[in-house]
Amino acid sequence: MSILKSLVTISVLGIFLTPRYSESAISCSVVLNDLQPCVSYLTSGSGKPPQTCCDGVRRLDAATTTSADKKAACQCIKSVANSVTVKPELAKALASNCNASMPVDASSTVDCNTVG
User: Fold this and answer.
1) Which range has the worst mean pLDDT, 1-15, 16-30, 43-57?
2) 75, 88, 104, 113: which has the fewest C-beta neighbours closer than 10 Å?
């Protein structure tokens, strides 16, 4: 009986002492790769984005499932948007123009602290 009690105790302790893995965030290179086809549209385009851009938006949406992913994607998008001049109206409407969703607007003014 004491062996069974010891096994139960070890099992219970194992559950509580198992390390919790933190959420791994999406890398900026993945975000950039997905949104690269959108750059010319966001800087000088009009109307609907090209299909390759919308495919990237959908891939990014599928890849950003956790709060950490969304915040990391936001920081990446914001840093890139600060280095190029995008048309704000196209950035804000990118996801809806692709009939998709995205964790954030492709804008330099987005508040990444509210994302997630």
Assistant:
1) 1-15
2) 113
Question: How many structural domains is the chain composed of?
Answer: 1
Q: Is 102 within a domain?
A: yes
What does 43-79 look like in DSSP terms, one character per residue?
Answer: HH--SSPPHHHHHHHHHHHHH--SHHHHHHHHHHHHH
Classify residue 114: in a domain, yes or no.
no
**Global pTM?**
0.73
Domain holding 33, by residue range, is 25-108
Task: Match 């600060």 to its residue by tokens.
Answer: 82
Q: What is the CATH number of the domain that holds 36?
A: 1.10.110.10
What pLDDT digit, counting tens, does each position of 61-110 carry? 999 999 999 999 999 988 888 888 889 899 889 999 999 887 777 778 88
**Per-residue model confidence as pLDDT tens digits over 17-30:** 333 334 568 999 99
CB 99 within 8 A of CB 54: yes
In-domain check, residue 44: yes
Of 15, 60, 14, nearest in space to 37 by CA:
60
